[in-house]
UniProtKB/TrEMBL annotation:
Recorded GO MF terms: ATP binding; kinase activity
Domain of life: Archaea
Protein family per UniProt: Belongs to the GHMP kinase family. PoK subfamily.
Name of protein: Pantoate kinase
Native species: Halarchaeum rubridurum
Keyword Coiled coil recorded: no
Lineage, opening ranks: Archaea, Methanobacteriati, Methanobacteriota, Stenosarchaea group, Halobacteria
InterPro entries: GHMP_kinase_N_dom (IPR006204), PoK (IPR012043), Ribosomal_Su5_D2-typ_SF (IPR020568), Ribsml_uS5_D2-typ_fold_subgr (IPR014721)
Coiled-coil intervals: none
EC code(s) of this entry: 2.7.1.169
All copies of domain GHMP kinase N-terminal, residue ranges: 64-142
Entry keywords, A to Z: ATP-binding, Coenzyme A biosynthesis, Kinase, Nucleotide-binding, Transferase
Free-text function comment from the UniProt entry: Phosphorylates (R)-pantoate to form (R)-4-phosphopantoate in the CoA biosynthesis pathway.
Length: 277
C-alpha cells in the first residue's frame, strides 16, 4: 500500500565554506559552518500518474528534486512550501531534495535508512550544482560544523552547542550554481582558515565573526550587503552574509536594533524529519 507522506527540513544558512571535489558526488562536498533555521521547507509527496513538482503552489524546476525522484524511481507529486526566499542562501533546493527523499521513501514504503536518504539527497544536490553542504547540515540541525566533506558514511559533522533567535533580511538572489562553476580557490582557502578558527572557539558569536571575515576575504560581499552588515556591527550586533545569497543574517535582534525591518526566526534544534501530516 502507498500513501502520502510529509517531511519538514529546516532552512540552512552557510556562513563560510571550502569546496572539496572528489571522484563521486557522495564524497564531494564542502567543509564549513552554518546555522539551521526553524523557518524551513515542508514537503509532501503523494503517488501520482505523472511526476509534478510545485513550490508554494507553482510548478517548479528544481533539478535536485528530479534526481531524487529518479534515484527512488518514484512517480509522484511533490509539493513544497516555504516562507524562505528562494535562491537567497537558505538551502531551499537542498531542503526540497532532502524532504522529497524522506517523504517519497515514506509514501512508497521504501527500504532506505535515514543515512541512505541523506546520501541520495546530497548526491542530487551536488549533481544539480545547487549545493555542497546544505543537505548534511539540514539533516543534523542546530549550528552544524562540517569537518569533512560529503554524505554518510564519508562526511563528518560537529556542531556549535548553541541556540537562539536569528534575524535575516534578503536583498535578492545569487545563483549558487554560477558561483560554484567559477574559480573557488580563494574562497576555499578563506574557508579552511575560518574552520580552524571556529574549532578553536566554537561559539555562535565566533561563528558569525569568522563568517564575516570569510565573506571579506573571499570577496563575496556586494556593496549593499556590506553596508547592512556594517550597520549591524556599528549598532553592537553580530551579522554576516548568507552563502550564497544577497542576504544578511544576524544574531538576536541585531538587524532590528540597527533599524532594519527583518524577519525573525530561531536556530532549529533538531534535524529534518518526517512529520506524519
Ligand atoms: N522562483 C524561483 N526562484 C529561484 N529558484 C527557483 C525558483 N523556482 C525554482 N527554483 C529552483 O530552486 C533552486 C534554487 O537553488 P539555489 O541553490 O540557487 O538556492 P537555494 O537552494 O534557495 O539557496 P542556496 O543558495 O542556499 O543554495 C534551483 O534549482 C532553481 O532552479
Ligand atoms: C555551496 C553552498 C554555500 C551553497 O549554499 C552550501 O551548499 C555549502 O555550504 O556547501
Amino acid at each position: 500500500m502507498t500513501d502520502e507522506a510529509a517531511a519538514f527540513v529546516p532552512g540552512h544558512v552557510t556562513g563560510f565554506f571550502s569546496v572539496h571535489r572528489a571522484g563521486t558526488p557522495t564524497k564531494t562536498g564542502s567543509r564549513g559552518a552554518g546555522v539551521t533555521l526553524a523557518d524551513g521547507v515542508r514537503v509532501r509527496v503523494a503517488p501520482a500518474d505523472e511526476r509534478r513538482v510545485t513550490l508554494n503552489g507553482r510548478e517548479a524546476d528544481v533539478p535536485a528534486v528530479e534526481h531524487v525522484l529518479d534515484a527512488l524511481d518514484a512517480t509522484a507529486a511533490v509539493s513544497a512550501s516555504t516562507d524562505l526566499p528562494v535562491g537567497a542562501g537558505f538551502g531551499v533546493s537542498g531542503g526540497m531534495a532532502l524532504g522529497a527523499a524522506l517523504a517519497a521513501n515514506g509514501a512508497f514504503e521504501g527500504r532506505y535508512s535515514e543515512n541512505e536518504l541523506v546520501r541520495l539527497a546530497h548526491e542530487a544536490e551536488v549533481t544539480a550544482g545547487t549545493g555542497l553542504g546544505d543537505v548534511v547540515a539540514q539533516a543534523r540541525g542546530g549550528v552544524p560544523i562540517r569537518l569533512d566533506p560529503g554524505a554518510p558514511p564519508h562526511g563528518q559533522l560537529d556542531g556549535v552547542p548553541a541556540t537562539g533567535r536569528i534575524e535575516y533580511v534578503s536583498l535578492g538572489e545569487l545563483s549558487t550554481a554560477d558561483v560554484l562553476a567559477g574559480s573557488t580557490a580563494r574562497l576555499s582557502s578563506a574557508g579552511v582558515r575560518a574552520l580552524s578558527a571556529l574549532r578553536e572557539r566554537p561559539t555562535i558569536a565566533g561563528f558569525v565573526q569568522e563568517s564575516r571575515r570569510f565573506a571579506e576575504e573571499a570577496d563575496l560581499l556586494t556593496p549593499e550587503v556590506e553596508d547592512v552588515v556594517a550597520d549591524v556591527v556599528d549598532a553592537g550586533g553580530e551579522a554576516s552574509m548568507a552563502m550564497l545569497g544577497h542576504t544578511v543574517f544576524a544574531l538576536g535582534h541585531g538587524l532590528s536594533d540597527a533599524g532594519y525591518d527583518a524577519t525573525a526566526t530561531r536556530v532549529h534544534d533538531a534535524g529534518a524529519s518526517l512529520t506524519g501530516e
